[in-house]
Design brief:
single chain, elongated
Length: 163
């Protein structure tokens, strides 16, 4: 009788976890496709600007701007990679939390149920704190990178006629 109940619980969990895993994989694939599309578009624009047959003065300005823009790409890509890594971690953690919640909701004993819900809440609160820390870290690195690039390429950031 206990084995049959256990099998029923496992079967009840499988569709939920399977759906969550499937959703996570689709989300990750869509995110990666979007990043690839942006990277390809950026490279196409840079290639088009580099092959332009415009006058030498305009060509020099564009080449300088493209060099500055090309310096931005690795920095932005690094921040995007950190963001994707955080999102992947959160997707896995979300699936784990869902599993813990399903498991806790299917527990019949009060003490065991309370223990599982406490574990769920502890995991949830730790995840929330880790997310805040990670987002702050990624944001501060992004701002620092932006300021460094702006200082290095100030001639392209300064308004015309400015000193």
């Amino acid at each position: 009788m206990k084995k049959e109940k256990k099998r029923m619980k496992e079967k009840a969990k499988d569709p939920v976890l399977e759906t969550a895993d499937h959703a996570i994989k689709n989300y990750e694939q869509a995110l990666r496709s979007g990043l690839k599309l942006q990277e390809d578009a950026w490279q196409s624009w840079c290639s088009l600007l580099n092959q332009s047959a415009a006058g030498p003065e305009w060509q020099n300005k564009v080449t300088g701007a493209v060099s500055a823009a090309n310096a931005v790409v690795p920095v932005v890509q690094k921040r995007l990679e950190e963001t994707v890594e955080l999102m992947e971690k959160n997707a896995r953690l979300g699936a784990e939390l869902m599993k813990k919640a399903v498991d806790a909701s299917q527990t019949t004993g009060i003490a065991e149920s309370q223990s599982k819900w406490m574990d769920f809440m502890k995991t949830y609160l730790n995840a929330a704190q880790n997310n805040v820390d990670a987002v702050m870290r990624i944001s501060s690195r992004g701002m620092e990178s932006f300021l460094n690039l702006a200082q290095k390429n100030s001639e392209f950031v300064r308004p015309q006629g400015g000193k």
